């Protein structure tokens, strides 16, 4: 006797899923589009106009002054200008300290050219030292590009190698 093959009626057969992968493709496309466009869709950082005189800290009176090639003081506030890293005033060697003074003077000169704008609005982000973080520009002239182009700073490379100003 041969065994009978039993065929179950269609209504009892397990359904084969069709197109189950399609929703995953659509989801992947939507997430990919969001990933690519997230910076474009984000509102621009608030920009504030700045119109004040900045002296060199410790040399001239005034509420606003230049501390070094990338830091300002406005009263009790400290502002770290972003996009570049200038040599340190208390650098490792005389060459770095001299380059730091040159960078400080160049920043003072850039600021003395008058009104400029910076990002951050009323509540700017802050660094680990509590300084406000702001990008400064005057029209299309970005301060970071100016300082780097003059050879007085390096581009900000977080965790990367730094310029050896002492060589």
From TrEMBL:
Source species, domain of life: Bacteria
Protein name per the record: Thermonuclease family protein
Species this protein is from: Qipengyuania vulgaris
Lineage, highest ranks first: Bacteria, Pseudomonadati, Pseudomonadota, Alphaproteobacteria, Sphingomonadales
């Amino acid at each position: 006797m041969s065994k009978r093959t039993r065929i179950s009626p269609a209504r009892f057969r397990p359904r084969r899923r069709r197109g189950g992968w399609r929703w995953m493709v659509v989801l992947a496309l939507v997430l990919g589009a969001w990933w690519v466009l997230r910076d474009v869709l984000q509102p621009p950082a608030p920009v504030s106009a700045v119109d004040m005189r900045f002296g060199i800290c410790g040399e001239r009176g005034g509420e606003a002054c230049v501390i070094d090639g990338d830091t300002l003081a406005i009263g009790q506030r400290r502002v770290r200008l972003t996009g570049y890293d200038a040599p340190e005033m208390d650098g490792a060697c005389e060459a770095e300290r001299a380059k730091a003074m040159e960078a400080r003077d160049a920043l003072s000169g850039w600021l003395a050219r008058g009104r400029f704008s910076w990002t951050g609005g009323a509540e700017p982000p802050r660094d680990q030292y509590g300084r406000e973080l702001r990008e400064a520009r005057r029209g299309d002239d970005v301060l970071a590009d100016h300082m780097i182009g003059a050879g007085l700073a390096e581009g900000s490379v977080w965790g990367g190698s730094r310029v050896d100003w002492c060589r």
